From TrEMBL:
Residues 1-253 form the EAL domain. It comes from Methylomonas methanica. Coiled coil: none annotated. This is Diguanylate cyclase (GGDEF)-like protein. It comes from the Bacteria.
Length: 253
């Protein structure tokens, strides 16, 4: 049995789980939302990182099932938290393949209706490179998702190819600064310059900014001096299962 065929069955066998990592307001410390990150608990090989199985899934139609499953689960969880009065914005990662699938908006409409969530509660993370492989086609899907009310975020900003011309034309809510620029913010003058410039660029385009990979209070203070909007990282919490996130929220709200 290949890992690929096992992945195909992992969903039915309930081997996939979604972990949540909080996003926190830099200015107030308030919890803004969380990013949904998929995990594969393989019975023999143990934990397998999405960095390994997402690219594998993307080479086949499995990615479509995987994305639908992640959307279904995270929408359900979001609805559950909203019912408890927690007004969180939940971020979900889309792959390049998803962005080029003209059926995605219809799939999402079905999933949102079934879970009884408003699209405005969800933020969809897309990477620069996934847009740039076929910008016109990606733009059509992005435009439709925006019209449905979904928030859109550019993930890993600064690490891929991107065109500022497309950035300007896209209906975005957020830029997410990649952790590779954030972790050494205090040690690297170049990283500091990049982070500061990215925050200013985003704000001048009317976008909010999340810095990921925030591990220390010193980095948090620096981000605060740069007027960064949101932070995500081990300083607050590692990604955690649905139940643990509920407990974390109750303790940290
Ligand atoms: O979870 P971790 O911190 O290891 O994430 C590794 C990578 O996997 C990140 O690039 C993240 O964006 C990606 N990833 C995590 N969950 C999903 C998912 O549900 N769908 C897609 N397409 N990518 C994901
Ligand atoms: O590619 P994407 O940015 O979506 O993935 C986020 C990844 O970053 C996940 O694998 C997550 O586990 C990881 N991560 C989250 N917070 C931190 C952090 O504070 N430091 C580091 N080094 N990695 C982090
Ligand atoms: Na992401
Ligand atoms: Mn990222």
């Amino acid at each position: 049995l290949t890992l690929m065929s096992e992945l195909r069955q992992a969903i039915e066998k309930e081997q996939l789980h979604i972990y949540y990592q909080p996003k926190v307001s830099v200015a107030t410390g308030q919890v803004y939302g969380a990013e949904a990150l998929v995990r594969w608990q393989h019975p023999k090989h143990g934990f397998i990182s999405p960095d390994e199985f997402i690219p594998m899934a993307e080479r086949t139609r499995v990615i479509k099932h995987l994305t639908s499953w992640v959307l279904k689960q995270s929408f359900k969880h979001c609805a559950e938290w909203r019912k408890r009065g927690w007004e969180l914005t939940i971020s979900v990662n889309l792959s390049a393949k998803d962005l080029h699938d003209p059926e995605l908006p219809d799939v999402m409409a079905g999933v949102a209706a079934a879970a009884n969530i408003k699209p405005g509660w969800m933020m969809l993370e897309i990477t620069e490179s996934s847009i740039m492989t076929d910008p016109e086609r990606a733009m059509e899907v992005i435009q439709r998702l925006h019209e449905m009310g979904y928030k859109l975020s550019i993930d890993d900003f600064g690490t891929g190819y991107s065109s500022l011309a497309y950035l300007k034309r896209m209906p975005l809510t957020e830029l997410k600064i990649d952790k590779s620029f954030v972790v050494d913010l205090l040690k690297s003058e170049n990283d500091a310059v990049i982070v500061k410039a990215t925050i200013n660029l985003a704000h001048n385009l009317g976008l909010q900014v999340t810095a990921e990979g925030v591990e220390t209070q010193d980095v948090m203070d620096k981000l605060s001096s740069y007027q960064c909007d949101l932070a995500q990282g081990y300083l607050f919490s590692k990604p955690m299962p649905f139940e643990d996130f509920g407990a974390w929220l109750a303790a940290n709200r």
